[in-house]
Amino acid sequence: MTVSFSDVAGGQAGAFIDAGTLTWASGNVDADPLFADAASNNYHPKSQAGRFNPATGAWVTDAVTSPCIDAGDPASPYAAEPHPHGYRINMGAFGNLEVASKNIRWPIPGDANGDCRVNILDLIAIRGRLNQSTTTGDNWIADVTGDGRINILDLILVRTKLNTKCE
Length: 167
Prior knowledge:
Layout: E1 2-3, E2 23-24, E3 35-37, E4 42-45, E5 51-53, E6 58-60, H1 120-127, H2 152-161
Helix pairs in contact: 1-2
């Protein structure tokens, strides 16, 4: 059995299989998934940007965001997830569904590497990925405009936001 891009309590030591070999692959985390209400079988991950509440059929916001949001396999499709999203599938049963919990990509537009600064490093990150697929590896981070493409518009956005920092 291979476990990858999963939230497993106790990490690799918390995984158990009856027979065979356990392969612990990349992307696994050992963190509280911050489910909305596991006691009531609501396993939607909490989100500050919005999560679907099946009991009311409405979107609600939370004070925290689950570490499972935008933490799934970067090679998996995510297009069915509602905006805003981080151009990466969520871990769990609701990944790549129209009821997937939302995520605010970055605190500031143009921050391609998520360091809370827009600077030359963001231009370099985008330039090295121009015209590549946003569904390959972690290329989604270079799509700072959020249009599903890595192109000159991403470079322009970074240029207009240079020297911006998180507050």
